[in-house]
Amino acid sequence: IGFCLNRNFSVFVSVVMSAMEEDDPQPTTKAGDKPNVSGNGTLVSTAPLDGFEAVTEGKAKVLFPATVERSVFYNKAQIVNRDLSILVIKVFQEVISVHSGVKRGANEAQKGALHILEALSASGLRSIRYWKEIPGIHRLVVNDLSPDAYTAIVRNLNFNEVPIVSENNKAEDIVYPKEETAAQAGLQPICEDAVVLMMKTRPPPIPSATSPPPCRFNVIDLDPYGTAVPFLDSAVQGVEEGGLMCVTCTDLAVLCGTYPETCHAKYGALCVKGKYCHEMAVRILLGHIETVCNKYGRYIVPLLSLCIDFYCRVFIRVYTGRGEVKFSLKKLSHVLQCNMCSTFHLQPVGKVSASKGSQMKDPSLKPANKKRKTNTDETSKEEPAAETTKEEKKEKPKELSMQEKLKQVGQAISGKAGVQTGGLRFNAATFTAPDKCEVCGQNFWIGGPIYTDPIHSVPFVKLLIEHLEKNKEQFGAYQRVMGLITLAEQELTDCPLFHHLPNIASHIKTSVPPIARYRNALIKLGYRVSSVHCDAGGIKTDAPNTVLYDLMKIWRRDHVTGQQKEQQEQSKDSAKKKENKRKWDKKGKKKSDGGDDDGAPSFKEAHQQEIAKLVDKILSVEPQIKEADFSYNAKCDISAGHTGVAKFPQNAPNWGPMARPKGTAKAINEQKEGEG
Fold first, then answer.
1. 19: enclosing H helix or E strand
2. Rounded distance, CA 314 to CA 300, Å?
3. Are the beta carbons of 80 and 123 closer than 8 angstroms?
4. Between 498 and which of 166, 289, 482, 532 could a Cys-Cys bridge form, CB atoms 3.0 to 4.6 Å apart?
5. Looking at beta carbons, which pairs linking 2-10 to residues 24 or more positions away fall under 8 Å?
6. Per-residue pLDDT for 601 more than 50?
7. 249 touches 227 (CB < 8 A)
């Protein structure tokens, strides 16, 4: 059979199915039809196999309709999403198996094993890969509301010969499994509203002494077409204490500020059009999930949060704690973005302080950093403490065993139990940002609120890198996943958002310095700096906005030659001549071109004049830093040629979100009509 499937699949299928149709023809499952169950409890697909394409990804082989009007589809660009999810759940399973941070199921057979829900499964490809590639799964519920998608799920489960737990496929049977089937391990397909299914797994408001508690999920995976907002309220209640939520949102245009009114309606926040909009999209999503959790006395602990191509993907743990929920107001901030240059500031939503006469301190506060030494004049040549070589003299730390690493990571990604809030006051934060931009003097746009706590757990990400290096042959998107998590591990977790060097350089009309040299200049001044996972030209740093612009001015002064400056001036004059020539026709009459009849400039011309004034204003201010070291430092070079890891590989052809399946809405409407 395997030979036929690989060499001549279409011929084999047509012969077999024609024989089956002669013996007992079965029509295709329609909306509202009940699933067909064989005598041994295995669900049998009633859809024919001809007219389907076989796709192999990882250890799964699935069938997709070859027609244009299909209820499910295969998007090769999402292999990064699926590989990344398998990697995270694998490591998460290893961590919780060692660290007792998650309560297991009541049934003895379920202890130490995962109970996973893929709420929006479509074809079932992701669930099949989970089952075949992640060890330690006890029950995997494969759900989709569309009857056509449910048929595809059943067909693919049987095609892959995976164990199927067959009950009545009702939500009650999953939430309260029967004793004889609770110990059975396998995949359980269901055609149910994901919101209804997850809401039934939440604990009852008043616990009952007679009825058992519902079986909650250790892992809930939400990967919808578009936004995941409609499913979040039920998901944060349906996941168990310390459980893992994997959330995807593909409406990146909304999250990045293209449609601000839609972003505010869905996520309760606004994204300003800065170069950091992709990271801001991730933080808007995390902030919204945190707010949803707070309504039910819960909060999140992010493990890994990424913006990849056309979607956001976040992996978070959910905990319950009324005390910790109070500190959520400190995790959110508004963004103040200058409407002309790259300057931005963060304004916290709230603050925590000790009550009058109380000795209680905010447990989330970190010890203050020592005063930074900066090279602000020509006589200050002393190197900062960060550049000393004391670390080289220290002995290498003892390498930990895998069990010890898992225990440490388990402690790092666990929630805070028993947080005391007595003696603390929670108030609105005072305004700390300047009234005007300190670089160009313009006003600010206000966006947010966004999540400004760390969006990655560095110990957990290091464990992901270690696991991926040992099992690279198991992941088809190894290079892309390795590049993403490597950059995530290097990011400064306490510096929300990032600065875009090409954008800063454009504001003072200069060439972009090599990022490795610019980063080294910041380090020499005593600042911290890192790369960012979603933009090759971005840097994260704790340096003020003025320092970033001062360094760019020094680069323009010292590294842009006189010939280059002359060429820049000539290009300006040439542009002005072309613009003036365009304003007059051949007869010598002035064209309106959108401007006023009295010769007033058009909107485009006025904007260009404002930009020219902005450049002159920024350059008119002498930099406070007199000298900067733009020498090359290999430690600051993150290029693939130096590190051997491709951070930003080129996208494959035809990548991106595919069109919504055409058969889904039609099938659901038919089901509603049948029920009516």
1. helix 9-23
2. 11
3. no
4. 532
5. 5/54, 5/61, 9/54, 10/50
6. yes
7. yes
* pLDDT given at position 3: 39
**How far apart (Å, rounded) are the C-alpha atoms in residues 379 and 627?**
10
Q: Which of 224-238, 483-497, 567-581, 598-612 has the lowest mean pLDDT?
A: 567-581
Helix, strand or coil, per DSSP, at residue 112: coil
Q: Three-state SS string across 193-243, please?
A: CHHHHHHCCCCCCCCCCCCCCCCCEEEEEECCCCCCHHHHHHHHHHEEEEE
Q: What is the mean pLDDT of residues 473-490?
A: 93
Tokens of 361: 């301190």
Give CA–CA dist 527/373, Å, rounded.
9
Distance in Å from the first CA to the final CA of the chain = 44
For residues 335-348, average pLDDT: 94
* Host H or E run for residue 538: strand 538-541
Query: Mean pLDDT lowest for which of 124-138, 173-187, 594-608?
Result: 594-608
Q: What are phi and psi of 603, to 5 degrees?
A: -60, -40
Helix (H) or strand (E) holding 348: strand 344-348
- In this prediction, residues 25-38 reach a mean pLDDT of 38
Token couple for 436: 């005007």
- Geometric angle at alpha carbon 561, from 559 and 566, rounded to 5°: 140
369 Cβ contact list (under 8 Å, min separation 6): none
* Contact call for residues 594 and 602 (beta carbons, < 8 A): yes
Q: How far apart are CA 80 and CA 528, in angstroms?
A: 30
Q: Which of 287, 352, 251, 241 is nearest to 496 (CA)?
A: 287
Q: Please, which residues have CB within 8 angstroms of residue 61's CB and are 6 or more apart in sequence?
A: 5, 54, 55, 159, 160
3-state DSSP assignment of residue 457: coil
Strands 444-451 and 424-428: unpaired
Residue closest to 270 by CA, chosen among 452, 497, 451, 447:
447
- Asked if the peptide bond before residue 449 counts as cis, ω within 30 degrees of 0, the response is yes
Q: Is 664 left (phi over 0), alpha (psi -120 to 50) or beta?
A: alpha
